[in-house]
Design a protein that fits this description.
Shape: globular
Order of helices and strands: EHEEEHEHEEE
Length: 133
Amino acid sequence: MIKKVEHVAIIVTDLDKAIEYYSTMFNFVLRTRGKNERREMAFISHKDQPNFEIELIRDITPETQYSEIGIVNHLAFTVDDIEEAIAYYKNKGIVFLSETYNLAIDGAKVIFFKGADQELLQLVQPNRELTIS
């Protein structure tokens, strides 16, 4: 069911600074950037590993202290069909944090759940059509 590790989300306090850091220091490139009413986010990838991304997240109005949720926010796994994956993992006993998937800023279908030690995990059905050159 799981195809690969999709991305790791990192909480940042300055999105521009984080994008610049990962771009300058490690040659990551920006795929897409956007925001909603709560968060500003960017997805960056590396040319040598284009199918793995880092999601940078900046809370517009911080809801909690960063240390309470951790600097690494969640681990995401790629699936081909999120509805099929949700049904499969529900059968295995996973309880999702929402009734259905949500759409990410890039149109990906996403749903969160907790791991064995309450770590935040996510399933992602990517929408790779939205890119920034």
